[in-house]
Amino acid sequence: MYQNCLKFCIKGNCTNDGYRFSPKSSIQQDFWCKLIGWTCSDECRYICMWNTVEKFQAQHGYVPKFHGKWPFTRMLGMQEPASAIASMLNLATNAYMYGRIRSEFTVRKVPIVLFWHGFALVCMNAWMWSTIFHTRDTDFTEFMDYACALSMVMGLFIAVIVRTD
């Protein structure tokens, strides 16, 4: 059902590369989706996902996963709005605490502060990529999210060792 819808939608609305909308396209993309970079084939996947969800709920009473993920309603172009907002809040909290570290401690007086500067930057980078990934899932943003999350976990492991020393 999903695959047939997708094939029909892409053929009827997208250019051959699948990125742009053809002149005869019936899909209307909002400002936020354009800003974030949703392509024509992405829009078709989204439309067909929700068409399939409606039919599955009516016929079978459950919601299927698509591309290994549960369907979410986009908000302001964000693919997973709650996760993206939670990641933004984590980034903001880390940035706030980093500002406090910078204002209250100096490397000359407390040399270990240099480690905490680096750790804070690693964490802020990880939360930034988490926000980007949950806003717009692509192979690259997924890789960066997982790689930076791993760097944060490794930083936490080092922090435990530093703190217990």
UniProtKB/TrEMBL annotation:
<dbReference type="GO" id="GO:0006506">
    <property type="term" value="P:GPI anchor biosynthetic process"/>
</dbReference>
<dbReference type="InterPro" id="IPR007217">
    <property type="entry name" value="Per1-like"/>
</dbReference>
<keyword id="KW-0333">Golgi apparatus</keyword>
<comment type="function">
    <text>Involved in the lipid remodeling steps of GPI-anchor maturation.</text>
</comment>
<comment type="similarity">
    <text>Belongs to the PGAP3 family.</text>
</comment>
<keyword id="KW-0812">Transmembrane</keyword>
<keyword id="KW-0337">GPI-anchor biosynthesis</keyword>
<dbReference type="GO" id="GO:0005789">
    <property type="term" value="C:endoplasmic reticulum membrane"/>
</dbReference>
<dbReference type="GO" id="GO:0016788">
    <property type="term" value="F:hydrolase activity, acting on ester bonds"/>
</dbReference>
<feature type="transmembrane region" description="Helical">
    <location>
        <begin position="143"/>
        <end position="162"/>
    </location>
</feature>
<dbReference type="GO" id="GO:0000139">
    <property type="term" value="C:Golgi membrane"/>
</dbReference>
<feature type="transmembrane region" description="Helical">
    <location>
        <begin position="110"/>
        <end position="131"/>
    </location>
</feature>
<protein>
    <recommendedName>
        <fullName>Post-GPI attachment to proteins factor 3</fullName>
    </recommendedName>
</protein>
<keyword id="KW-0732">Signal</keyword>
<keyword id="KW-1133">Transmembrane helix</keyword>
<dbReference type="Pfam" id="PF04080">
    <property type="entry name" value="Per1"/>
</dbReference>
<keyword id="KW-0472">Membrane</keyword>
